[in-house]
């Protein structure tokens, strides 16, 4: 069976150099194994979607020579499936409704971990109704969850201690990224997830959700983040510049170098699609450097 990978941008702005690196790595990893590469627009958090960003992302990918297999999947069209699997978790007794706000937790002085506030489980036994409340996954008995990353090696996290019960649906009815990504990866048959190293910790949450829902876990490859001159991860929040269609060849070569690949100089004169073709044929995942990201807490502080 050929593998299936995906690129899953959030349309909160145009693609920047960091997102180009993620697109390129996931594309090469799938296509080098004669696999499929799917495009998924992660617009589950509808209030964060920026008008026109999705169309811009599609245009950018095309200009950089990417072609994807099958139709684009939009998370905003998948709410029924997220609801179904959330109900399943509720029926299994894995989730509960919670009335605590971030602010009330801050006032109680709850600890923070790599993914923010560590929810101490105040509402676990309150039996609150789901509507109007957030829904959290109970991690009391989760223990340590780990995986072997294809770039970073063994990685594990004690979820009950370092993350706490995390939100799967917010009180305003928005499904969390964690639930959406796990459900979509399963239903789209994704077996090879390639994404930025800022999501290493998140992957442990996804593994726990996959276990609870009876899904197989894909292989994971996290790739080193691109930092700006101040050493902070390039992101829309830190004002990263959009990728430039006029500089496609130069930016693709720079992205390959960031991934430890050794592109020929002559490629600079080629069309983007030809550079991608070279990149797929010469893809060396073992050459990707495992540069550790700054902790999520300092990333948070920079937002
Ligand atoms: N939507 C996420 C982002 O744009 C990527 C999530 C993933 O690849 O799982 O950062």
The number of helical segments is 10
Q: Order of strands across the biggest sheet?
A: 1-2-3
The bound ligands are:
glutamic acid
CATH topology of the largest domain: Rossmann fold
Mean pLDDT metric: 94
CA radius of gyration is: 20 Å
Question: Nutshell version of this structure?
Answer:
The chain is 34% helix and 16% strand.
How would you describe this structure in keywords?
34% helix, 303 residues, alpha/beta, Rossmann fold, binds glutamic acid, disordered C terminus
Question: If you had to describe this structure to a student in words, what would you say it looks like?
Answer:
- The structure is a single chain.
- The chain has ten helices and twelve strands.
- With 303 residues, the protein is α/β, with parallel strands linked by helices.
- The strands form five sheets. A three-stranded parallel beta sheet has the order 1-2-3, covered by helices on one side.
- The termini are far apart.
- The C terminus is likely disordered.
- Glutamic acid binds next to loops.
Secondary structure topology:
Elements: E1 4-7, H1 17-31, E2 36-41, H2 53-63, E3 73-74, H3 79-91, E4 95-98, H4 102-108, E5 112-113, E6 116-117, E7 134-137, E8 144-149, E9 153-158, H5 159-162, E10 167-169, H6 177-187, E11 192-196, H7 200-213, E12 219-223, H8 248-258, H9 272-281, H10 296-301
Parallel strand pairs: 1-2, 2-3, 11-12
Antiparallel strand pairs: 4-7, 5-6, 7-10, 8-9
Glutamic acid (GLU) binds at residues 8-10, 42, 181, 195, 199.
